[in-house]
Amino acid sequence: MLFLLAVGIVAFVQPVSVTCGSSAVTQSPAVRGPEAVTAVLKVSTEDDHAKDTHLCMADYKLEITRNSDKPHEADLLTSDNDWGRKISVQLSGFSHDGKQVIGMFSEDGSAPVKIVFEYNTGDDSTRLFDLRKLAAGLKPEKCLVNAQIIGTLESGAIVIALRSGKDCVRSSQWSLNSVNGPMHRLPKHAAVLQLYSGSAAQ
Predict the structure, then answer these.
(1) What residues pair up with 160 in beta bridges, in sequence order?
(2) Element (H, E) at 197
(3) What integer pLDDT is reported at residue 164 of this predicted model?
(4) Furthest-apart CA pair in the chain: how many Å?
(5) How far apart are CA 99 and CA 95, in angstroms?
(6) 51-65, 73-87, 101-115, 127-141: which range is least confident on average?
(7) pTM of the complete model
(8) Beta pairing class for 113-120 and 55-66
(9) What is the DSSP letter of 193?
(10) Beta bridge partners of 100
């Protein structure tokens, strides 16, 4: 079933943040999917122990738990960059059919990144979308600060809302179909499948 969503009424997921350093860890609130499946997005950081450098390594993992089974951890990405950089993670939720777990993480510092990920619950595969690269030329860079995942299209493509800000144009919705781009702007009242409604894990 399709649901018409307007950018202005979407409940945006708030990120949780940590400063990259020795043994720093944080995780998103758990979200619930169909059939009692839950997910948590975790990041742990530590010194990269490289000679003559003082960089910090960040390790991103998605933890999936099915019923009372032992949690399964999926490795998403490991990054190595500035010590003390701010890292933020947010887990948006499961797609309406439960086949995708979708979220986002970002880092500041000398080489900032903003990554959208899509984990496939069927085959344990992950796709990573470099939002800064895909959105280059579409919006002023500052607009990406307010980027939020709001759902999927019937095709499975992720839908991103770029919210208005002081230096941004009007709020808009964009679909992510390929990790190599491009992003496609959606009509204002495009039919978007909401993320699974049972997203708040108990």
Answers:
(1) 149, 174
(2) none
(3) 57
(4) 57
(5) 6
(6) 127-141
(7) 0.84
(8) unpaired
(9) B
(10) 120
Which residue is it, tokens 């649901």? 3
Contact present, 47 and 59 (Cβ < 8 Å)? no
Partner residues linked to 16 by β-bridges: 89
Peptide bond into 187 cis (omega under 30): no
Q: Per-residue pLDDT for 5 more than 70?
A: no
- Residue with tokens 């992003």, as numbered in its chain: 183
Helix, strand, coil % in the chain, rounded to nearest 5: 10, 50, 45
Cis geometry, peptide bond prior to residue 15 (ω within 30 degrees of 0): no
Locus of tokens 């490289």: 50
Predicted pLDDT of residue 1:
38
Q: Is the per-residue pLDDT at 2 higher than 80?
A: no
With a CB cutoff of 8 Å and minimum separation 6, the contacts of 66 are: 35, 36, 37, 72
d(CA 49, CA 32): 37
